[in-house]
Design brief:
The complex is a heterodimer. Chain A is elongated. Chain A is an alpha+beta fold. Chain B is built from 3 helices and 5 strands, in the order E-H-H-E-E-E-E-H. Chain B starts with 13 loop residues before the first strand and ends with a helix. The chains are: A alpha+beta, B mainly beta. Chains A and B meet through helix 1, helix 3, strand 2 and helix 4 of A and helix 1, helix 2 and strand 2 of B.
C-alpha cells in the first residue's frame, strides 16, 4: 500500500461572481457580501469577494480526486486572504505524514489554494485513509 | 463584544437528509467531475458538504446567535470536519446538534484584541452512531475586516 503521488497543481479561473453565487446557492450561505455590489461597497470593500468555503470546496475536490471520496477522515480549513472576481486560483497538495492508526494506513496532507499574486487564500490540513490498490480498482468498477 | 456566558449553550437537535441531488449540486459548484459524487447511486458527501446545515439549522437549533459576535467585525477563521469512517452517503438521515464549546481572546499581531468563538456540531446517523463532527471558529476583530488583512492577523 502506498500513497498515490499528488496530482499536478489545478488551476481554476479567472473566477467570477457567477462561481460565488452558484456556490452560495449550493451551500445555503446567502451572505450578500459575496454577491451584492452595493452591500459590499457599503461594508468598505471594492466589490463582492468569494466565499472562503468555496475555495475550501475546491481543495476538497482536488484532494478527493487524489485520495478518494470515501477515504477522507479529517479536513481542517484556515481562511487567509480573500479571493476577488478575476483572480486565478491554483490548488496544490503535498504529503505531510504517513502512519498507522486504528489498524489503518493513514496519510496527512497539506493543501493550499493560492491566488495569482502568490498569496495563500486557504490552507487545509486533511487526513485520509490510504486506499489500497484493490480498493481503488473496486471504486473504479463501482462508478464505471 | 462576544458574550462569554454563551459557552455551553446547546441548540435543539435538527434533522438533515443527505440527498443525491444536493450532493451533485454541491459537487458541481465546487468544480468536481468525479464519478464518486456525480454518478454513484449513493455517493458519499464531499469533505465540506456538511456546511449545508444552512438549509436545516434555524431557530432554536442554532446556538450561534448566543455568542453575540459583532457581525460587522466578524470573520470565519477556521472550519473543520472530522469523519468517523467514510463520510455519510445519500439516503442517510442525520440528526445533528450544535453547541458553543469555547470563547477566548488573543492579542492580534498589530495590537487590538481578537475574540474567538467555537461552535461544535455533531452528526449522527439513524442508529445514533456519531458519523461526523463540525467545528466552526469565528473571530471578532478589533476593527472592521475591510481595514485589515484577514486571518493573517486574526490567527496570529
Amino acid at each position: 500500500m502506498s500513497v498515490p503521488a499528488a496530482p499536478a497543481p489545478w488551476t481554476v479561473g479567472p473566477v467570477t461572481r457567477t462561481d460565488f453565487v452558484r456556490y452560495q446557492g449550493a451551500s445555503g450561505d446567502m451572505n450578500p457580501i459575496h454577491h451584492d455590489e452595493e452591500f459590499a461597497r457599503a461594508a468598505g470593500f471594492p466589490t463582492p469577494f468569494s466565499v472562503g468555503m468555496w475555495q475550501a470546496g475546491l481543495l476538497g475536490t482536488y484532494a478527493t480526486d487524489w485520495l478518494g471520496a470515501e477515504n477522507v477522515r479529517g479536513f481542517r480549513i484556515r481562511f487567509l486572504e480573500q479571493v476577488w472576481p478575476g483572480d486565478t486560483l491554483t490548488c496544490h497538495g503535498e504529503v505531510v505524514r504517513e502512519y498507522e492508526q486504528d489498524g489503518e494506513r493513514r496519510v496527512d496532507v497539506e493543501l493550499t489554494c493560492r491566488r495569482q499574486t502568490g498569496g495563500t487564500a486557504v490552507t487545509v490540513w486533511s487526513t485520509f485513509v490510504v486506499p489500497d490498490a484493490a480498493q481503488r480498482e473496486q471504486e473504479a468498477t463501482d462508478v464505471a | 463584544m462576544a458574550n462569554p456566558d454563551a459557552v455551553g449553550t446547546r441548540g435543539a437537535p435538527f434533522r438533515m437528509d443527505v440527498e443525491r441531488g444536493k450532493i451533485r449540486e454541491f459537487a458541481r459548484a465546487t468544480r468536481s467531475t468525479s464519478p464518486a459524487y456525480l454518478d454513484a447511486e449513493r455517493p458519499v458527501v464531499p469533505p465540506t458538504f456538511l456546511t449545508t446545515t444552512f438549509f436545516w439549522q434555524s431557530g432554536d437549533a442554532d446556538p450561534w446567535p448566543a455568542v453575540e459576535l459583532d457581525q460587522r467585525r466578524g470573520l470565519h477563521a477556521e472550519q473543520e470536519y472530522t469523519f468517523f469512517g467514510p463520510p455519510p452517503r445519500a439516503g442517510t438521515r442525520l440528526t445533528c446538534q450544535s453547541h458553543i464549546s469555547e470563547i477566548y481572546t488573543k492579542q492580534g499581531r498589530r495590537g487590538g484584541e481578537l475574540t474567538f468563538a467555537v461552535m461544535v456540531t455533531e452528526f449522527r446517523d439513524e442508529t445514533g452512531r456519531l458519523v461526523a463532527r463540525g467545528r466552526l471558529t469565528g473571530v471578532e476583530t478589533a476593527r472592521p475586516p475591510a481595514e485589515q488583512s484577514r486571518a493573517d492577523e486574526a490567527m496570529a
